[in-house]
Amino acid sequence: xxxxxxxSIFKRWGDVEQTARVCxxxxxxxxxLKAHHGSTTELAGYLNKKLNINVFGGVVLNYFVGGLNPYAxxxxxxxxxxxxxxxxxxxxxxxxxGRFEFQDPKTEKFPEEGICIIKEKGKDLVEPxxxxxxxxxxxxxxxxxxxxxxxxxxxxxxxxxxxxxxxxVLVNHSHFYSPALEETDIEExxxxxxxxxxxxxxxxxxxxxxxxxxxxxxxQLDAKWVITSDSGQPDNKDPRALISFKDLLLEQGISQExxxxxMITAPQELLY
Length: 272
Fold this sequence. Notes:
Number of helices: 10
Helix content: 25-40%
Number of domains: 1
Order of helices and strands: HEHEEHEHEHEHEHHEHH
Radius of gyration: 17 Å
Strand content: 5-15%
Shape: globular
């Protein structure tokens, strides 16, 4: 899950077909393609007709597709998309806006203000989010939190529970710079329809040490953890990224059984 490939506004080691073929050859049953610039749903549909691996796509709600755009979400669902990501590089919590400290995009236009999914007082969602939740209600499409803040995620989950929206939520790279969840946050957020992603790339850029990630897993065993690579960068290729992540977790005392649950069982429960 959570693989980047070209075409992309950021430099990638391979294109979507190369990436899917390498993962297929490694014995993976499926991958999720993500692109900060918009939709991967169409590419996933094309590859599924060509290859013997399940390729999932979706849409990222950055300014490139109009931000929190219910029409983009509706189209994603209609075309068979599996993921809807909240803003990533255009999220208000993402710094620097529109880029990464370690990598610049090919684009030349950068926003002066990021996208926030909650109102100014911080106790409710902005109106477009309600439209998006209504579209996703009772659909087998995952709402992923992108790069929004921990505060925004908490308000989102509160609304989902209070309004009884039936959908699955994936909290993206929980130890990344944003949302940078602490164990108290995970304790508050975990629930039946909530999964927490831990990514190898978070470790690679030293956003969090492996010791902290492993200890959080051990302390929060009842949380639904999903291991991903967040790969695609020139020096972060799948399947090597996932293998390296597995080895690091084993060194930290995480059992192979638990790794299998996080790498195989939990993603299947989330996507199918």
